[in-house]
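REQUEST ID: PR-0412
SUBMITTED BY: lab tech R.K.
PRIORITY: routine
TASK: structure prediction, single protein chain
INPUT:
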Amino acid sequence: MEFLNDLISAAQVILDGGFDVQAFLGWKEVASLALLGLLGPSHYYTEIFKQVTSEHDSRSLLAGEGVLMAAKEEMLKTVNDGFPKLSARER
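STATUS: complete
OUTPUT:
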């Protein structure tokens, strides 16, 4: 999960520093591989990431960052939902 946080932060650095196409392309490649490894090739977030980052502009970077945020939230929810809930007495 920390790796997704790093990618989200890197996207913001690229946006804040004035969009650079080469930085975007490098970020896009790493982020694509991360989603592929975490979720697989046919997962919705993997596929939508490819679509929203098809243009080489700041809007694509922002949209790709949003997909990473959504994927992170979904994975956190899945992890949290997988643990048994403690009753008030057990806390």
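NOTES: The first helix runs from residue 2 to 16.
REVIEWED BY: pending
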